Amino acid sequence: MLQTAESETKSLQPIWSGSRSLFTSLLSANPNFSAAPMENAQLEARLKHWCEVIAQGNWDKFKRRLQWDGQDVEQVRSLLDGSPQESEPEWTETLQVIMAASRSAMQPEPSPIDPENPQPFEDLWLPAIAVARQKLLVHLEQTPVCLTETALRHLEQSLLQRLVGISIKTLDAEFSRTRPLGQNLLTQLMGTVAKSSGNEKYQAFISKHLADGLLSFFSTYPVLARLVTTALEFWVEATAEFLQRLAKDLEQIQAIFHIQEPQVTAIQLNLSDSHKRGRSVFILTFTRGEKLVYKPKDLSLEAAYSDLLIWCNQNGAPLPFKPLNVLNRGSYGWVEFIEQQPCADYLAAQRFYQRAGMLLCLLYVLRGTDCHHENLIACGEHPMLIDMETLLHHQANLLDETETADLAGLSFFNSVLRVGLLPRWDFNKDNRVAYDISGLGSDVNQSAPRKAARWQEINTDDMHLSYQEVPLPPCKNLALLNGQTLAIADYQEDFLNGFEQMYQFLVSHRAQLLAADSPLRLFQDQPIRFVFRATMVYGVILQNACAPDFLKSGCDRSIELDILSRAFLTVLQKPDAWPILHAELRAMEQLDIPYFVASSSSDALVLEDGTEIPHYFKAPSYDQMIACLEQLGQADLDRQMALIRGVLAAKIARPVGFQAPSATATTAANWQDLEPLSRDALIQQAQAIAAEIASRAIRGSDGRINWLGLSYVPNAERFQLQLLSHNLYEGNCGIALFLVAVDHLTNSDRYREPVLAALQPFRQILHRQEPEILQRMVQRMGLGGSSGVGSMIYCLVKISQLLHEPTLLSDAHILARLITPKLIAADQSLDLIGGAAGAIVGLLSLFSVTHDPEVLAIAIACGQHLLQQRVSINGSPKAWKTTADCPLTGYSHGAAGIAYALLKLYEASKDMAYLDAAVEAIAYEQSVFSAAVGNWPDFRSFAFVNGKPGFMSSWCHGAPGIALARLGGLPILDTPEIRRDLEVALHTTANNQFFGVDHLCCGTFGRIEVLLLAAELGLPSGESNWQDIAFRQATWVVQRAERTGTFHLFANLPQPIYHPGFMQGTAGIGYQLLRLVEPNLPSVLLWQ
Fold first, then answer.
1. Which of 138, 401, 922, 1071 lies 20 to 30 Å (CA to CA) from residue 271?
2. SS (H, E, C) 144-168
3. Given phi > 0 = left and psi -120 to 50 = alpha, else beta, which region is 30?
């Protein structure tokens, strides 16, 4: 028997040795290693992979990461190469028991298997569940267990799910090797397979691995042995702790929460992330149906919040709050369960949203954050916050105080936007799926941002994984009335009134709240969770690190986890926050989501091992809360109310479409009769726009500025209230171009400083950041001439000329060189807005000034990419698929715009291939032209009505944009067909009688620019005068804005919303007013 034990111990040595974490050695004070067992090529490949994971192959950066841990490459080679000389770890004792139970095929009785919810390969882990049960019983020998068998089974099911989750990728890979190759390929390619006779292969697979006690399996995947054993031991520890606490507190629980029969009949688990050795939140159900929440953390913050609500109620809050019952036991506690309930009637629904506004105001002062849909429950007319971890969140000093972080701190962290209750769109990776998971804005029937993994034919020979589009699960945060979910947009005034009333309540009671006996004093010295990174980031990394290839060696898994260090390597000096990485890696090595806690009364972060990072936070969060309360006043209230209105507008705002004019559109029947505005009046109007833009700027601590606005996300056709980006379309570059044009026409330098301050953020990035970071930035922006790097090159060139600032040209060159062959090859947008065509016109603007052959070569590379991407549909002339399933017509995303860019490239390069491609693209548009409508169809899918395409009449889609493209290319390509296109397109543009939105992209001023260009080029207008039409239409729009108090920027919003952007905001309108005064100003819509 002893010999067997010794033999088994010896057989386990490669398992525990191979599973050892790299960081156990890396962070050890005196690591010792044996002779190298790896081939040199393997070692170098592993080292190279590590460098790639954390530093994208940058060896200097990789060496910096090692140096910060007191290591160098040679020392790390020995770590990767050798086996640690150490004693057998304690967890192998449990592993031996699991393996012995597996050999004997021990089965837990009753079984934790849920026939209604089977888990893939669950049969393999039943012996481990039996071991866990035995260990748990040992811990509970002196503890009365007030759970039914069903509730105990729920606990065991959570462990089973945990073990399956850890091992599923590896088991699937191993199982696939036992099945015929053709069956596996069919499964992968089609997601379905021909049904086999049953589960013989599956049962044989399970039996094979159980027969040797999982020895061969764990020998191949030693890291999995450690993770499975660790998960089991943590489960036993956390479950025993929970049951002992329940038994100890049962009498108090009955009294406080009115539990009639104290036996737990069901437990809902996996309700939170796993922290601190596998601990998480449970919901208990008792015999009479009462429910209770168990939280394994200090609940003093929950208690303080409830006391504050009680104080508000006692002191005449606009409406009474509903406090939560809390039993805090120091390191853990019990909380009242809140259930979603409908509103009783319409008045109750109004009160729900009034209270929601009150709650937002209170959380704004309490420095709340991350109040997403899972942290709020609609309980009748009460919006109930159920997770107080969101309160008093600290604001960290960032590793690199860039302009974006600084301005984000001003506009986001110090506003209601921080809280997370207000509606806000999130987007999937390609920005095509919009979804809202905010506390008050989440919708029903939302599409999930990505396809969900779903196992099919579970535990049969045909078991396989498929990916399906699924809706997001229903949320309990939405108010209900008569079985229908309610939308905040329908109760906007109630919400705003609630916010304002609570704001005034806090102001009127400020002295009491600042007094020594204030309920806010309870928030001092509170343990506050600090979220260093988004939990989703940790989750994705943990999932990726459970791939089979990373479970064969502890080093390999550790390397995958070390991707976390990448965020620290953006600076050159070792950051004070470096110990945070060590804490993250320790947690992730044992499958925990890292968890950090800071005192509300301190600006230091103290890690679990006692390491203190002084002055890590900008200030103690309690001090920030008091400062926020002290600065409450009318100016701040107005700002917060404006932000709320902007966010609510962004939720419902939609772009102008092909559909009939909206309620904001007006038939401008009398515009012909108006006396055109004078030159001085147009300039004054532009100056007023510029002054308002300047007054709304958000200024950073070092003078840099930015703006908030409704940013447009074209792929998802949604708007988002946020700090504007750097581009021409809606960002700082476009705004700066307008401001410098105002100075240029008025012989002033009033806006020189704000123009340079607006450009400062990304200019600093260009000069400070490392090349790979710049490459990623450009990759995110794209190539385009409106929204991408091409737009920024163009703006820098034009601003440099108008401002007489040659350094801007140097920055334009830096941007141009960031357009690499790899970036061009990855471009799928292709068009003027976001793709290679836009890059061409931006680059050619730089080339026209510098005559730099390198710039022209980059533009030519973009042109070659466009030539390679042409397609022909059913024999039609070739064009490009951009944002639809077939080539679009029009300027912004269609053939007209790309053809214009190629014509300009032909002019610069004299390469006939570009001219030929442009001619063919124009022929494509001519082939689909509708003579009956006098316009070109919009082939985007949503534009179809009854199976037929719709028609728009704007710069972006339809006749005006096509006229603009033909006008821009006329000096290069002038044919009778082009002239016919222009005649039709210009008359369609001029005859548009609906003045809906005013801006350049989809509105009246975009059409005005087309008419102005036609006049400048002297195109015949018959009885019309293109310039006169342009001036009179501009006059009508300006006079309407003077009557209503604002320009109309969004088609479907009941109230006007401010936006300073160029293409869809007031900056572009102002610039177009200046173009009417001074035609020599560049036509930005043509990238002149």
1. 138
2. CCCECHHHHHHHHHHHHHHHHHHHH
3. beta
User: Which amino acid type is present at position 74?
Assistant: E
| CB atoms closer than 10 angstroms to residue 571 | 12
Of 431, 373, 625, the closest CA to residue 510 belongs to 625
Strands of 151-274 (E only): list them: 264-268
d(CA 404, CA 863) in angstroms, rounded, equals: 33
What's the one-letter identity of residue 91?
Answer: W
pLDDT of 184: 52
Query: Residue 774 and residue 765: Cα distance in Å, rounded?
Result: 8
Answer whether residue 483 shows pLDDT above 50. Answer: yes
Q: Are 1012 and 1079 in contact (CB under 8 A)?
A: yes
Q: Where does residue 351 fall: left (phi above 0), alpha (psi -120 to 50 degrees), or beta otherwise?
A: alpha
Q: What is the pLDDT of residues 424-477, one digit of tens each?
A: 888 877 777 888 888 898 777 777 778 888 899 999 999 999 988 888 877 899
Main-chain phi, psi angles of 296, to 5 degrees: -85, 60
Q: 592-607: per-residue pLDDT in tens?
A: 999 999 999 999 999 9
Closest CA to 268 of 234, 291, 287, 241: 291
User: DSSP of 551-571, one letter per residue?
Assistant: SS-HHHHHHHHGGGGGGGGGS
Using H for helix, E for strand and C for coil, what is the string for 492-531?
A: HHHHHHHHHHHHHHHHHCHHHHCCCCCHHHHHCCCEEEEC
- The residue among 328, 355, 361, 331 whose CA lies nearest residue 343 is 355
Residue 466: count other Cβ atoms within 10 Å of its Cβ.
Answer: 16
Give the C-alpha separation, 450 to 441, whole Å: 20
Residues sharing a CB contact under 8 Å with residue 677, sequence separation 6 or more, in sequence order: 685, 1031, 1034, 1035, 1038
- Asked whether 705 and 697 are in contact (CB, 8 A), the reply is yes
CB contact set of 715 (below 8 Å; sequence gap of 6+): 427, 430, 431, 432, 883
What pTM value is reported for the model? 0.89
Q: Is 938 in contact with 890 (CB distance < 8 Å)?
A: yes
291 forms beta bridges with: 285
pLDDT tops 90 at residue 195: no
DSSP structural state of residue 876: P
Helix (H) or strand (E) holding 170: helix 149-177
Q: Please, what is the Cα angle at 21 between 15 and 27, to 5 degrees?
A: 145
In terms of phi and psi (left: phi > 0; alpha: psi -120 to 50; beta: otherwise), the region of 1018 is left
Using an 8 Å Cβ cutoff, are 858 and 793 in contact?
no
Nearest alpha carbon to residue 884 among 823, 805, 937, 836: 937
Residue with tokens 């229908």: 484
| Chain centre distance of CA 1070 | 32
Percent of all residues in the chain with a pLDDT value above 70, rounded to a whole number: 93
For residue 667, pLDDT beyond 80: no
Do residues 878 and 917 make contact, with C-beta atoms less than 8 angstroms apart? Answer: yes
Partners of residue 418 on adjacent β-strands: none
Least confident range of 21-30, 444-453, 881-890: 21-30
- Please report, for residues 323, 361, 376, 473, 743, the alpha-carbon distance to residue 382 in angstroms, rounded to integers and kept in the order given: 10, 15, 10, 22, 53
Model confidence at 4: pLDDT above 80: no
Task: Check whether 659 has a pLDDT greater than 50.
Answer: no
Per-residue pLDDT at 192 exceeds 50: no
Q: Is residue 71 within 8 Å of 50, Cβ to Cβ?
A: no
Tens of pLDDT, residue by residue over 101-151, are 999 988 888 888 888 899 999 999 999 999 999 999 998 887 888 899 999
Going by C-beta distance under 8 Å and a sequence separation of 6 or more, which residues neighbour residue 868?
A: none
